[in-house]
Amino acid sequence: MAIMLWLCLCLAAITDEAMASMAATTECVDSRGIMPLVINTWNFSNATQNAWKQLSIGGSALDAVEIGCSTCEREQCDHTVGWGGSPDENGETTLDALIMDGPTHKCGAVAGLRRVKDAISVARRVLDNTQHSLLVGDLATNFAIQMGFKEESLTSEWSLKTHNDWKASKCQPNYWQNVVPDPKDGCGPYKPVKGHVPQNTGQNLVNYENHDTIGMVAIDRNGSLAVGTSTNGLRHKIAGRVGDSPIPGAGGYVDQDVGAAAATGDGDIMLRYLLSYQAVEYMRQGMAPKQAGEETLKRVLKKYPSAMGAIVVVDKNGKYGLKSLNNYFYIKLMGIVLQAPRVLTLSEAFHTVW
Ligand code: SD4
């Protein structure tokens, strides 16, 4: 009976009427107090809804985050997820994705995946069909082909134009430092300058034009947690660069006994702090999701006061918190939470939760 009631409420949640009704207040809790949830970074509502539909028909959290993230890959969300976006310095789009399962603590990830569009599903194959956690580059492509995925170009008209415009503007901006010729004034190839001292330039290339990884956390009706991420990384990245998104503990992390987190933003900086792992560990020590997110990001700010990034933190009971560095999440509509039957934009969530 409880399951039936749960199902009814959840199915109601995905009707247009319910989606539009921000005033609905009934919560989708079963008799064990489990509150299913989908939450993701940025305003990728089709991804959220497709993940939610999966939960509503009794699907697992793991399936929900795969379906949610692959929705964005297909839609090429903001040109920053999926094929045809964020060309690297050679003009190629490569993909990073991670999927992690709470109950088994297994994960599957791909980094620098070339010529295959379905990054999160390839990551899922790593999780399901291997004992490994992370495959990279061309060899990840070979694995994907063996698993039945199609090999095809990831270049789009948009990525081609973006790359050509960048070349025409003397390869600005770029991520080089301590090299000659001066990377602020021209394209490579570059050579290292001898005897430089490592420095934090404070340069920030992650901004409105260059962001929007999907990071998604789901809780299903059995209370199982999962997290997924998918991105094509940073625009004009140096070929071979991998960010935080496919790295367990950095782009996403889940501990079934505690909760989960997913991060978005300047992955070169953020992965140095293993932000998602840290947020979950803070919750293990007793912090609420909101405080865990805050404390985690404070660590970044100490050394990188102008860093751009954000984190979504969820405890195993479905309480969530969102926190961004330097108003990163305020750049535009930040994301979506679906905790049936109420749809909450993250901007609203900020007001109600933070
Ligand atoms: C990366 N963290 O590759 C990703 C980019 C991102 O919002 O999240 N942008 O560094």
UniProtKB/TrEMBL annotation:
The keyword Membrane does not apply. Keywords: Signal. The record marks 212-213 as: Cleavage. Residues 1-20 form the signal peptide. GO terms for molecular function: N4-(beta-N-acetylglucosaminyl)-L-asparaginase activity. GO terms for cellular component: cytoplasm. InterPro entries: Ntn_hydrolases_N, Peptidase_T2. Substrate binds at residues 241-244, 264-267. The active site is at residue 213. Pfam families: Asparaginase_2. Belongs to the Ntn-hydrolase family. This is Aspartylglucosaminidase. The lineage of its organism: Eukaryota, Metazoa, Ecdysozoa, Arthropoda, Chelicerata.
